[in-house]
Amino acid sequence: MNSGVTRVLAQFRELVKPYRFQVQADAEGFPIIPGRYGQIEWYCDGQDCAARFGGFCPMPRQFALAVYTDRPRLFQKLWAIPGVRRHQTGDHEMRAVFPPEALEQVAGVIKARRKRTLSPEIARKLGAKTAYRATSGGQKAVKSPHQGVTKG
């Protein structure tokens, strides 16, 4: 991984840390947040922006994220979120660009995966319940009507 991708990965992880989203690297090493109905990707850091070099950028000179989905029913829901701008739209897939402020709303629409965490209080409660109990302690002995009867 080159230093640019490493920098982007660190910046992306820091941005999504409070939301506890799972962050994975794509084939090129760039960070993505997988979801049930799509994924959230890093788009632009505002410094190496295509608009700076005369190219097209939907959010020039701004830090931006992108969302990809191949679920046409979600297109309107995503476009209705303030700050989300269409970038590429096909018949069955779409990519939109949005500012970090809209991250939680966009993640909710595509059902982004979160890291599973256990708070210390809940861990203590669970641990106290299972610490000194046998695995079959909750079962009571039931006398069978055939118990003690032998065939002869």
**Strand order across the largest sheet:** 1-2-3-4-6-5
**Which architecture would the CATH scheme give at its second level?**
Alpha-Beta Complex
Largest sheet: 6 strands, antiparallel
Number of helices: 4
Q: Please, what is the average pLDDT?
A: 80
Write down the overall geometry. extended
H and E order = HEEEEHEEHH
CATH topology: Aspartate Aminotransferase, domain 1
Distance between the termini: 78 Å
Number-wise, the strands total: 6
Summed up, the domain count is 1
Helix content: 25-40%
Which consecutive residue ranges, at least 5 long each, have pLDDT under 50? none
Description:
By secondary structure, the chain is an alpha+beta fold. It has one domain: Alpha-Beta Complex (Aspartate Aminotransferase, domain 1). Helix content is 25%, strand content 18%. Strands 1-2-3-4-6-5 form a 6-stranded antiparallel beta sheet. The radius of gyration is 25 Å and the shape is extended. The N and C termini lie far apart (78 Å). The relative contact order is 0.14.
Topology, pairings included?
Elements: H1 3-16, E1 24-25, E2 31-34, E3 39-44, E4 64-69, H2 75-79, E5 85-89, E6 94-98, H3 103-110, H4 120-130
Notable characteristics:
152 residues; alpha+beta; Aspartate Aminotransferase, domain 1; six-stranded antiparallel beta sheet; 6 strands
